[in-house]
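User: Can you fold this complex?
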Amino acid sequence: KAGVTQTPRYLIKTRGQQVTLSCSPISGHRSVSWYQQTPGQGLQFLFEYFSETQRNKGNFPGRFSGRQFSNSRSEMNVSTLELGDSALYLCASGSGQGAIRAMNTEAFFGQGTRLTVV
Amino acid sequence: AQSVTQLGSHVSVSEGALVLLRCNYSSSVPPYLFWYVQYPNQGLQLLLKYTSAATLVKGINGFEAEFKKSETSFHLTKPSAHMSDAAEYFCAVIPSGGYQKVTFGTGTKLQVIP
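Assistant: Here's the predicted assembly.
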């Protein structure tokens, strides 16, 4: 069974640009969660999708958005990039619904996308 | 609001020694608790989870954790450290009862000295 696939692995963008990150969950998983990891703030929950609907959202500005497609693949978009958006963005997939069940049934993480904003 | 505190951002142990990584949570109701491990340039891997069943939880790679409600703690232990245990470990918490946001601790980097 293939794991969670995040593309691209590395990305360099200029301040003010926008970026789209992709996450393909494990086959059969319908829940996808996104996290931002930085040395200063640690791991922070961005949002969670289940069956194409956002079920939960963290405390991030509206520049951060996401969506999920009918095949459960998810994309995350950040507009008007700031230097502080430089981070490792992790995606996790789970078979359950909601943050609790997704993690309760073992959320599987991808390797992440390393975004650098210059 | 829920929070989780990991004491010690860096912990060093000798190979073969006991590993103890501390995690305390703040929640009025016992939450769901998790330990994850992250190797360099990798995502997170679930080590173990507490979901209101047994208070002593056994996980992968010989790790275990004990939920102590009176101390609001969920410390991670392993009797004998291996070099391959060197990684960063994260404690995470979700309050019980409904869809909630997950909160991660700040992480503890474990160094294993040969």
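The CA atoms of residues 6 and 23 of chain B lie 5 Å apart. Chain B touches chain A through 25 residues (CB under 8 Å).
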